[in-house]
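Design request, tokens follow.
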């Protein structure tokens, strides 16, 4: 697996699904700053509520799938998920079908967010339970204090870059600030 972080401001994302898993995936995407377009032919109350009634009440056509760069599919019958995944792949779209590894071009990691610091743990679909256990360890290892520390470091970095500081100076300053925040 190759871990990457997608910028939701640059990538057009769709969520296609029906029930609680789709609602949970929507919350996960929103926590990452995404506002995916939501499609559902049979939305559950949980998905309707989570989507603020902005979802399209049908499944996307093959042509509509071409508008996305990444698609998450959850809570669809296997055969329907397979058809949509294949159509999306044919259009060059990256696909994740919740809990169906053979339809996944990428896997959704377990995530810890501390402000702009995002830590992810994944197993390539081998065991979401192991990824979750790793996430729980990361939560303990990286307390909430990392969020304000990162903001301090980002401000200092921007100033140092304005003064044409080199890479070594940026690293040194960041490490010093982490120590000042009691995190190194």
């Amino acid at each position: 697996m190759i871990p990457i972080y997608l910028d939701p401001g640059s990538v057009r994302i769709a969520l296609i699904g029906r029930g609680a898993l789709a609602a949970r995936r929507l919350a996960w995407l929103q926590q990452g700053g995404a506002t995916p377009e939501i499609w559902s032919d049979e939305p559950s109350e949980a998905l309707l509520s989570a989507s603020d009634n902005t979802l399209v009440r049908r499944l996307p056509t093959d042509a509509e799938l071409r508008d996305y760069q990444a698609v998450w599919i959850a809570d669809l019958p296997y055969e329907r998920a397979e058809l949509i995944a294949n159509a999306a792949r044919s259009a060059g779209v990256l696909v994740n079908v919740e809990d169906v590894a053979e339809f996944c071009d990428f896997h959704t990691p377990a995530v810890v967010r501390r402000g702009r610091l995002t830590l992810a743990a994944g197993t390539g679909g081998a065991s979401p339970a192991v990824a979750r256990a790793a996430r729980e360890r990361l939560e303990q290892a990286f307390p909430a204090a990392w969020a304000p520390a990162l903001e301090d470091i980002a401000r200092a970095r921007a100033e140092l870059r304005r003064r044409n500081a080199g890479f070594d100076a940026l690293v040194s300053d960041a490490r010093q600030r982490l120590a000042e925040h009691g995190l190194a």
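Comment from the thread starter after seeing the answer: thanks! The chain has a mean pLDDT of 95.
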